[in-house]
Each structure stands twice: as C-alpha cells, then as structure tokens.
C-alpha cells in the first residue's frame, strides 16, 4: 500500500503551525515519504497552504465555534480549504481526501469537525467572501502585523507588494560570464527549447519564461549558470571589487553572492564566513560547481577576535540575517513563522554586525549592506542610524546601476520591492569609509 | 539485501493466489528483508509477496513515519473484530498514482507466523487494519481496484497501460 500524500502534507503543515521548522527544511524529508509521482502535489499543497494560510485561517475561524487545540486538526482544515479554494481538485474529492488523511493520521475523532467545516465553507463560500473581503489580512493574505507594517512603509505600493508576495516567483539565472557570454547562453537555451529573456538591470541575469529543473539547463553542472534572483545579483555589481582586492563575504551561505564576486573578478582574495557548519557545506558545493575557490570560515561574525587575522578588507559584503519579507513568494512559510517582535530583534542584530565589521574595513574601502527584507526597520533605519553615529561612514549608493534606475531611493541606500514577474525584494546600501 | 521489482496492474501475475508457507526457512527470512527494503524504497507502507512475484503467503507492513514499526506476517489470517465499516482512500504500489475509497471492517485480529516460524496474534484498527487487509487481499489475487466500479477500474487500467507502453 502507498502512503497518502495529503497525510504527509498535513504533517508538514502541522510542523509549521507548531513552528518546528521551515518548509525548506521539512519538505525534503517529507518528499522521501511519498512516491515520486506524488511529489509535485505534495509541494503544491505545502507551499500553497503556507501562502494562503492568513486568509484560510480567517475562514476557519468564522466556521469554527472554537479553534481545535490539536495543531494537526487545524492543519487538515487549512489543507482542505486550500484544495477547495485554490486547486482544480473536485470539491467532493478534496473533502473526502482530507477526511481520509485525518483517518490515516489516527484522528478519526476529528473527521466530523473537519468534514463539517469544509462542507460549510463550500456551502457558504459567497457569504464568507462578502463578510471577510474588507479584512486586510484576508485581502492581502498576510498576517495582520505584517500587512500593517508593509502598508505603513509603502502606502502607495502596498497592494502591488502583496500581489507579488502571493505570486509564484520567476526562475532567474546568473550567467558565469568568465566562461560564456549572456548572449551565447541565451542562444544555448533557445537551442534547448527554453524561452528566456535578458534581465533589465543585472548584466549577467536571464529570466526563464517557465521554471525548470536545473538538470535540464545546459552546462549547469559545469557552472555555466547558477540560479539566483536578479535583485540578489546586484550585490556583486554594487560592491565591484578591484583586481586583487581582499574581500569578506560576511554571512555567505549558501554562497551565491560569493561565487558571483569571483566570477566577476577572479583575482580577488575572498573569505566567505558563516556561522553554521552545515551551511558552509552548501557554500563549498556551490564554489566547486562554479570552479571557484574561497577561504571558508565557520564563525560568529559578531566575534571577530575569534576569526579575524587583523588585516583589514578592501571590500565587505554584509548580507545580513533578516526577516526575509522581501522573498515571501519563495518562502511563504514566513507568513506562519515570523513574529512581529522578530523585526526589532533582527534590526538590533543587523546594527550590531554592521558596527562590528566597520573597523575591519580599510580606510577608502567599501561595504555593501544588504537584506532581503521589505521593511525599513531592518534597512534604511539601520543604515541611517549607523551613518549618523559613524564619522568616517558615508552613503555612496548610486542612483543608477548598469546605467539604469533601480529601486526606491531611501534616506540611506536603495530599496527594491518585490515585483510580480521581476526581482525579489532587497535592500542595498553602499557605504564608503573615509581615507 | 536486494530491491525487488514490483509488478504493476493489470499484470496477470498479480491475480495468482499465494500458497501457505509450510516451513519458515532462511530463504523466507531473506525474502522478508528484501520486501522491507523494497517497500521502504518505493516508498510504501505495505507490500505482499505476490507483488514481487513470489506466490507465498507473506506480507510486510510499516505505517510509521520513520520506519520504526515493521511487521512481517507469514500465513496471515484475518478475523473481523468490529464489523463496523471504515472508509479509506487506498493507494497501492502496484497501482501507482491512483487513490480510491474502499470500505473495510474497522478492527481486525491477525494471526500469523513471525520470521522465526513462531505463531503470534495482534489486533489492529485504523490505518494499520486497512493496510493489513489490503495486503492480505493481494495473497488471494485481489486488488483494491476490485472494490470500485468497473468503469473506474477500466479507466485506471487504460491509463496505466498507456504509461507502461511509454516506458517500454
């Protein structure tokens, strides 16, 4: 007998609701439990549920007299509502399969409530829609606190941001122009039958019309291209290390930006640092595939006494730990896992790392501060406060990149907002240290 | 240990009836090990010897999440303890990609021999009861698709035949 894919999906969603891990960590293990042909459905159910959870949770709350105490029951309700609202699975099949999943998880006693909620959702769909459509959490599909923070920071762009966050992201490649030109690689894609176009701002970026498995990309294993969002590709462009420079990539995993820096300027001496050993393995794998070499350091960036050799760097890339609210479309579980209190805590950490690294930069050197957050608390506010406190620091972020305007100018640095069909949400500030 | 090939519906060999094991030997213990390996690799939660083209009354089952509750049954016999009907959407490693609702008694007792030839008995309900009944059906040449309408069964048959031709 084979295992029920919905029961496996319900386990993953239960783990998310109980904050026991992220989709990126939970899904690979879950995929091993179902047959290969069921894996795309499993993925869709897990990602889809996370993406729509803020809305589905409101629907469930309206239909339940009392929220079930068991997270698995809540997960099954979300799973059923997701299938009813967002998949082409016939309604009766969606309901019976969800009830079935409950049985297979040993939740026979909950099948009545699950069945009842799903049937009511179906019967009262229009009425629910009418009642809830005025609720910003419902319309934005973001948790209330995040909806409010985005709306406050970006009053005129908020609805576009929500839409972009709720849409599947494009697959974008970075061409290793040390090995092949972008035009030549576009030709290779065309020969393979893959439609793609050159990115507007990144001179090495290509966006595929349809996402595909990396295995069918020409020369992927040989490092001709890497998968990297266009916004993320701008880090190396901004930092633009000179020949032979000493460069630190301070929070380097999984190593995409390290590889890019080396592809752009092969002669640099790059140190790639990360706090987690397992994540360093990812950097090493990426470097190997791209045929690059860097010094790998496993350390806490805020404790340079433990890892720094005392020689200042010409360039530092600080891709700081952040809320990842700019890449919600790639990691929709952020909607379930992040808390409002995380944001201020992250800003404190970001500020601490920036202040720790600044003395490690040579006079005349440059530091790029980057996050994949859309919230000014983690971005322009951190950088503006740092510049105000730091005499030898100045904001040198260009208004044009690759001769093109790029993003929203801030009191300090530049904010890229997530674009439907375009790049992820990112923040960049290029800081120069006085001679 | 070796991974075995799993027969796919509508292979006529799935309709053969398995014979009781007269004496449990090392060869049967090896078969149990290979069947567990094959089931975990698929991955699945139950497998009958008929599905790997061995006409003996042997099944393996493990419904746990982490492979921690393996059961091997030799010459299993089922007694219904609670005739109340339980509905479950079953899927089968020999009918890959299809799930259909099947009704079975919700609670059963299984008597069988273990890998050392010792008799044992256990009670099962819920998914475990479904799975054991599903596997024991295989030993009698029966598949879960036999419980659904001929129309649905034929649709599954033609879809699987098509994908088998594509692979051949």
UniProtKB/TrEMBL annotation, chain A:
<dbReference type="GO" id="GO:0009383">
    <property type="term" value="F:rRNA (cytosine-C5-)-methyltransferase activity"/>
</dbReference>
<dbReference type="InterPro" id="IPR054728">
    <property type="entry name" value="RsmB-like_ferredoxin"/>
</dbReference>
<protein>
    <recommendedName>
        <fullName>16S rRNA (cytosine(967)-C(5))-methyltransferase</fullName>
        <ecNumber>2.1.1.176</ecNumber>
    </recommendedName>
</protein>
<keyword id="KW-0949">S-adenosyl-L-methionine</keyword>
<feature type="domain" description="SAM-dependent MTase RsmB/NOP-type">
    <location>
        <begin position="161"/>
        <end position="434"/>
    </location>
</feature>
<keyword id="KW-0694">RNA-binding</keyword>
<feature type="binding site">
    <location>
        <begin position="251"/>
        <end position="257"/>
    </location>
    <ligand>
        <name>S-adenosyl-L-methionine</name>
    </ligand>
</feature>
<dbReference type="Pfam" id="PF22458">
    <property type="entry name" value="RsmF-B_ferredox"/>
</dbReference>
<dbReference type="InterPro" id="IPR006027">
    <property type="entry name" value="NusB_RsmB_TIM44"/>
</dbReference>
<dbReference type="GO" id="GO:0003723">
    <property type="term" value="F:RNA binding"/>
</dbReference>
<comment type="similarity">
    <text>Belongs to the class I-like SAM-binding methyltransferase superfamily. RsmB/NOP family.</text>
</comment>
<feature type="binding site">
    <location>
        <position position="274"/>
    </location>
    <ligand>
        <name>S-adenosyl-L-methionine</name>
    </ligand>
</feature>
<dbReference type="InterPro" id="IPR035926">
    <property type="entry name" value="NusB-like_sf"/>
</dbReference>
<dbReference type="Pfam" id="PF01029">
    <property type="entry name" value="NusB"/>
</dbReference>
<feature type="binding site">
    <location>
        <position position="319"/>
    </location>
    <ligand>
        <name>S-adenosyl-L-methionine</name>
    </ligand>
</feature>
<dbReference type="InterPro" id="IPR004573">
    <property type="entry name" value="rRNA_ssu_MeTfrase_B"/>
</dbReference>
<keyword id="KW-0489">Methyltransferase</keyword>
<keyword id="KW-0698">rRNA processing</keyword>
<dbReference type="GO" id="GO:0006355">
    <property type="term" value="P:regulation of DNA-templated transcription"/>
</dbReference>
<dbReference type="InterPro" id="IPR049560">
    <property type="entry name" value="MeTrfase_RsmB-F_NOP2_cat"/>
</dbReference>
<dbReference type="InterPro" id="IPR023267">
    <property type="entry name" value="RCMT"/>
</dbReference>
<feature type="binding site">
    <location>
        <position position="300"/>
    </location>
    <ligand>
        <name>S-adenosyl-L-methionine</name>
    </ligand>
</feature>
From TrEMBL, chain B:
<feature type="active site">
    <location>
        <position position="135"/>
    </location>
</feature>
<dbReference type="InterPro" id="IPR036821">
    <property type="entry name" value="Peptide_deformylase_sf"/>
</dbReference>
<dbReference type="Pfam" id="PF01327">
    <property type="entry name" value="Pep_deformylase"/>
</dbReference>
<dbReference type="GO" id="GO:0006412">
    <property type="term" value="P:translation"/>
</dbReference>
<dbReference type="GO" id="GO:0042586">
    <property type="term" value="F:peptide deformylase activity"/>
</dbReference>
<dbReference type="InterPro" id="IPR023635">
    <property type="entry name" value="Peptide_deformylase"/>
</dbReference>
<comment type="similarity">
    <text>Belongs to the polypeptide deformylase family.</text>
</comment>
<keyword id="KW-0648">Protein biosynthesis</keyword>
<comment type="function">
    <text>Removes the formyl group from the N-terminal Met of newly synthesized proteins. Requires at least a dipeptide for an efficient rate of reaction. N-terminal L-methionine is a prerequisite for activity but the enzyme has broad specificity at other positions.</text>
</comment>
<protein>
    <recommendedName>
        <fullName>Peptide deformylase</fullName>
        <ecNumber>3.5.1.88</ecNumber>
    </recommendedName>
</protein>
<keyword id="KW-0378">Hydrolase</keyword>
<feature type="binding site">
    <location>
        <position position="92"/>
    </location>
    <ligand>
        <name>Fe cation</name>
    </ligand>
</feature>
<feature type="binding site">
    <location>
        <position position="134"/>
    </location>
    <ligand>
        <name>Fe cation</name>
    </ligand>
</feature>
<feature type="binding site">
    <location>
        <position position="138"/>
    </location>
    <ligand>
        <name>Fe cation</name>
    </ligand>
</feature>
<keyword id="KW-0408">Iron</keyword>
<keyword id="KW-0479">Metal-binding</keyword>
<dbReference type="GO" id="GO:0046872">
    <property type="term" value="F:metal ion binding"/>
</dbReference>
